[in-house]
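Subject: mismatched residue count in predicted assembly?

I count 651 residues in my input, but I want to confirm that the predicted structure covers every chain. Input:
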Amino acid sequence: MSRIKELFQNKKDILSIYYSAGYPNLNDTVPILEALEESGADIVEIGIPFSDPLADGPTIQKSGEKALENGMSLKVLFEQLANVRSKVKMPIVLMGYLNTVHKYGMEAFAKKCNEVGVDGVILPDLPFQEYLDVYKPTFDANGVSNIFLITPQTPEERIKLIDANTNGFIYMVSSASVTGAKKGLSDEQLAYFERVKSLGLQNPSLIGFGISDKESFETTCKYAEGAIIGSGFVKMLGEVSDLKKDINTYIKSIKA
Amino acid sequence: MSSKYNVDEKGMYGQFGGAYIPEMLQPNIDKLKSVYLDVINTPEFSKKYVKLLKDYVGRPTPLYYAERLSEKYKTNVYLKREDLNHTGAHKINNSLGQILLAQELGKTRIIAETGAGQHGVATATACALMGMDCVIYMGALDIERQAPNVARMKMLGAKVVAAESGNQTLKDATNEALRDWICNPEDTFYIIGSVVGPHPYPDIVARFQSVISEETKTQLKEKTGSEYPDYVVACVGGGSNASGSFYNFLDDEQVKLVAVEASGLGIDSGETAATIALGDIGIIHGSKTFLIQDDDGQIIEPYSISAGLDYPGIGPQHAHLKDTDRAIFLDATDQEALDMALEVTRLEGIIPAMESAHAFVALNKMEFKPEDTVVITLSGRGDKDMSTYMDRFSL
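Triage response: the counts match. Full output below for your records.
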């Protein structure tokens, strides 16, 4: 059974943490991962830095820019992750924009993910239809789950199509926004969470964008299997003094 | 027009184009895709648009036989005078078309990106005319470099927002505009200024610019008896004036299409915007096309003296025209373009925009016969470039 599937079968109130590979320092990628596992995060999304991150707000943009300055690239990331499975057991998802992966080669990317033990990938600008028509068999053959985003504007039919053709989780974008843009959850958003919950999807869902503290985390856990925190965590990383201790404090402040 | 050089039902130009966008943009793009042809093909829409082009923009623009240039290059050079449009360039053709489309879709707020400021000014103008809210994204560095156009936009009532991300130029302004649209999907329409972005934008912009080649055909027929020139030449950054100049000649294979890109300080200088010469296939701003990138797929910031040509990608249709050898792609350095800007000014009494000056470099790089008819699109006037010209020509 895949690590992602196992996680959702055995645990509730899943906390997923996003950060950019190679930030704040080039070689922090794996130490952050280890600290996250130790402090109780359940799943991790490692961002592949890209020069033109369309869906990201200023915090994550800046972390990506810094990572690129530090020398991060998809190749370097895979080198850093080469022995990661001897260090951490939690599911690892890579999140990045299509151009870097396209340049690396989609098949080589899927194989490499499998080889180092990456469980899933999120490519927000990969068209779902193209994934179905062209790339799905490659990712399936390598045991890598593709995770797709849905938003409050995504039609029900499309949600069902995505659900039927993926096997990781559904990434519910909480509102029309880029990452880190909005704080707090409105009634409108809660109604959207409720609507998706009532669809009875086969895949679990995680809610992301705008989740940044214990309160919003706990609220989203009532509607979905858990939530994703990105900008809030990345902001903390930018001010970190003791990586292990600060990450532990941060995670405990969300999920006691 | 159905042509093998135009977009297919999947939104592709051969292997290029498509809509590589995050889910947050999907509903707006899907909506636009499903209605744009129906809307712009209605007689009412067409009537409104044509009236604006005629009475407000001042179309048709002249097709001018450039006698002294023709004499010098021993061929027949015609200039399609887009520089005589209201606001000084071809950009207004598209901004007016798209703002009418935005109104049909019930949108109340307009956003746009701009590099040199020409598309920003055209869009701010259209918004002032229609009484719509207007936000223009412009790289922080470009805001510094293009102060007169920033002032024009502000005077027209637009809010000019500095894009502080990346290298703070056109590419980053486009990212910021797309991010704005992600955050404001309901009331906002994004008027893209070139034949770039996710489908259907490249097709929408090409259609609104196609008036250039439509008029050229009619005017050339009147002047020469034939509607077919031997060559159509245009500069290309994203490629909107080239797209409009080529559009009605795409299937007339006897008409050779020539696109001139900006090579900045030279193709191998590292300071260039020659996408076709240097780029390989990738995804930028929602479209699969040629782009300048490094081995890791990071997009490289381009350089050209002309702010309107320094885009690291190129419209997907142009990538397809390259791939199929339908168009000839040339490149011109800053210096070559500057030399031609001065030559055109002295021979014809027309100060061209820095962008348009690149197109004229084709006269030096190609062999034209005395009997050839060569149409060059003079996409904009040089007023905005006077500080560059003053500096480079010690005026």
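Residues 3-255 of chain A form a domain with the TIM Barrel fold (CATH 3.20.20.70). Marking this ticket as 'not a bug'.
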